[in-house]
Amino acid sequence: MLFRQACDEDTRRPRACASLMSELELAPLSADERAHEARVVATIRAAIEAAGGWLPFSRYMELALYAPGLGYYAAGAHKLGAGGDYVTAPELTPVFGRCVATQCAEVLERLGGGEIVELGAGSGALAADLLAELALRGALPAAYRILEPSPELRERQARRLGDLPGDIRRRVAWLEGVPTASFQGIVLANEVLDALPVERFRVGAAGFEALGVAVEGERFAWRAAPATAALAADLSSLTADLATPLPAGFVSEACVSMDPWLAAVTEPLRSGIALLIDYGLPRGAYYAPERDGGTLACHHRQRRHDDVFINVGLQDLSASVDFTRVATAGLAHGLRVAGYTTQAHFLLGTGFARHLAAVRAATEPSRESLCARTAARLVLPSAMGETFKCIALARSYDQPLSGFSLRDFTASL
User: Fold this and answer.
1) Can you tell me the mean pLDDT for 327-336?
2) Are 7 and 291 in contact (CB under 8 A)?
3) What phi, psi does 125 have (nearest 5°)?
4) 105 inside domain
5) How far apart are CA 336 and CA 324, in angstroms?
6) Total domain count for the chain?
7) Which of 5, 106, 117, 264 is most buried as measured by Cβ atoms within 10 A of its Cβ?
8) Number of CB atoms found within 10 A of residue 32's CB
9) pLDDT over 60 (residue 19)
10) Cα pseudo-dihedral 177, 321, 47, 225, rounded to 10
11) What single string gives the DSSP state of each residue in 275-327?
12) At 354, which CATH number?
């Protein structure tokens, strides 16, 4: 598994029950890892007991990923790169960061300058490549601020960006929380939306059911309960315009936290764009009958599987993005959809061929072919090119964006 790939074809249902210390682990855990998993399991089990024996899946996912000092993104597990659980586009090749920089430079120039706020900067590869390219273009932002929930990733980012020239490095700062002071520029997020906690649901005979987590002996188990009024209203709104009604028994997920999250991270943006890149689908495709089972996926040591109840706190949990929900949330908070397209079209529109040629020219001849093949994964339909999408949400910015100049699929939302 070379990158986190959307499970568009995945029609599997959640397993009825999975062991807390399951024999289904995809790779043996060390003693330290087992001890850490036990602490995370104990935390979640206590939350289930405090909630009366049943926990919404969104809360389970939140604790597994973000519980302070314990969750996957809050503890010290190595996540990105060949030695981690997955590899994202910026780690594959600097071509990705250079293309994103081209779009950022265009926006900053038309704004007359500004800042970039990156959400979840991973290993720091995107920031490093983007800033280096902006420096070459004479288009550095006044500041490059990073909001990173993972202490381990924050340390990696600091090490990587610490190697940049002083004039670039001085512009970089880490945020302790969502920025509150208004600014103009760009909010940037690559593979962040997929890690927002989601609600798991099922279409029942008597209405929508929430699929939550309970404890069964020494095991976590899926348990259904009637959807709350708020969740039922959200799902009713979500499904109202679908071409085909969802059949009884249909299982999927809904990211009800998208609206408040997007409102918080874009509220300080006075003028500019939010550029969000992730794997996902428009709503009509996301909730198509053949996609029964949803898109929930786990990544552990470069392997993808669907058992959310093993390697607890040690594996990534994610769900594909409903980009219609992203667009709707943006509109509700004073943003307009300035473009929506595939990653392939976005990269091609921002100079993919030119940037690849420059990277190849700086590569040892013996590695040029590998360099080209690796970069091609970003745009090939069978790899990341069509699975990943880019959406731009604009506020007080009405200029065209080169990343969406080749094809704009906003109408599909």
Assistant:
1) 98
2) no
3) -65, -45
4) yes
5) 13
6) 1
7) 117
8) 8
9) no
10) 150
11) EEEEEEE-HHHHT-GGGTT---EEEETTEEE--TTSSTTTSEEE--EEHHHHH
12) 3.40.50.12710
Residue 56 lies in a domain: no
The whole domain housing 102 covers: 89-194+261-281+322-412
Query: What is the distance between the alpha carbons of residues 222 and 334, in angstroms, rounded to a whole number?
Result: 38
- What is the structure's pLDDT at 11? 31
Q: What is the pLDDT of residue 76?
A: 61
Tokens of 4: 């986190």
Q: Is residue 304 a contact partner of residue 327, using CB atoms and an 8 Å limit?
A: no
Instruction: Kindly report the length of the chain.
Output: 413
Average pLDDT across the chain, whole number: 90
pLDDT tops 60 at residue 337: yes
Q: Tell me if 166 is assigned to some domain.
A: yes
Residue 202 resides in a domain? no
Cβ burial of 369 (10 Å; 0-12, 13-18, 19+) is exposed
Closest CA to 282 of 404, 410, 378: 410
State yes or no: pLDDT of 261 exceeds 90: yes
Q: How far is CA 26 from CA 101, 251, 313, 347, in A?
A: 38, 25, 15, 34
Side-chain-facing half-sphere of 168: CA atoms under 13 Å: 21
Structure letter (DSSP) for residue 7: -
Helix (H) or strand (E) holding 81: none
Distance CA 256, CA 239 (A): 14
Please, what's the largest Cα pairwise distance for the chain? 64
290-311, pLDDT tens digit by residue?
999 999 999 887 688 889 999 9
From 409, 394, 406, 334, select the one nearest 107 (Cα to Cα): 394
